[in-house]
Amino acid sequence: MSLTSEIFLPREDGSRHILGIAEDPRPDGTDLAGPESWRTKVWGSPSIRRIGARFLPALVDVDGSDGHGDVVEPGQIPAFLDEIALVRAELTRLATETCSPDRTVEQHARHIESRLDAIEASARYARRLGGGLLIW
Fold first, then answer.
1. What Å distances lie between residue 89 and 83, 86, 116, 123, 125, CA to CA?
2. CA 13 to CA 19: how far, in whole Å?
3. Residue 57 in contact with residue 44, Cβ under 8 Å?
4. Which residue of 13, 40, 121, 133 is most buried, as measured by CB atoms within 10 A?
5. Contact assessment for residue 17 and residue 9, using Cβ atoms and an 8 Å cutoff
């Protein structure tokens, strides 16, 4: 199972309309935010918290509306993009501290970077639409 980043548009009644396949032009796979294990091992790790991230670590917290996940509201997208830049700046440190024994730090860093690319593209697209982002 994988974590995904889904774009939503807020409705007037306060609910969220998650874009369906027909509404979301992103190519297949560009919504992937990493394997499920990354919820705690990378995005929720003590290492990412030490560098000052706050949105990505929320993946380990329970949101009463949908189980596990992180909601980035439309007005939070700029701060979320800043967080992605912060994580990129500390990518080597994060990869070193969260790498599993079955891969090299360089491989792990490339994997994290590719998932950051996908998450960032989703956030930028959500911003263009006036929407937000769900990562679950």
1. 10, 5, 12, 18, 22
2. 17
3. yes
4. 133
5. yes
Closest CA to 68 of 97, 27, 33: 33
Confidence (pTM): 0.89
The answer for 11, left when phi > 0, alpha when psi is -120 to 50, beta otherwise, is beta
- For 53-86, write each residue's pLDDT tens digit: 999 999 876 443 444 578 999 999 999 999 999 9
Phi, psi at 77, each rounded to 5°? -55, -45
pLDDT at 61: 67
C-alpha 60/C-alpha 81 separation (Å) is 19
Cα–Cα dist 56/1, whole Å: 18
Q: Please name the residue that has the structure tokens 């939070």.
A: 76
pLDDT value at position 91? 97
CA distance 96 to 51: 13
- Helix H segments across the chain? 38-41, 46-50, 77-89, 91-98, 105-129
The pLDDT of residue 64: 39
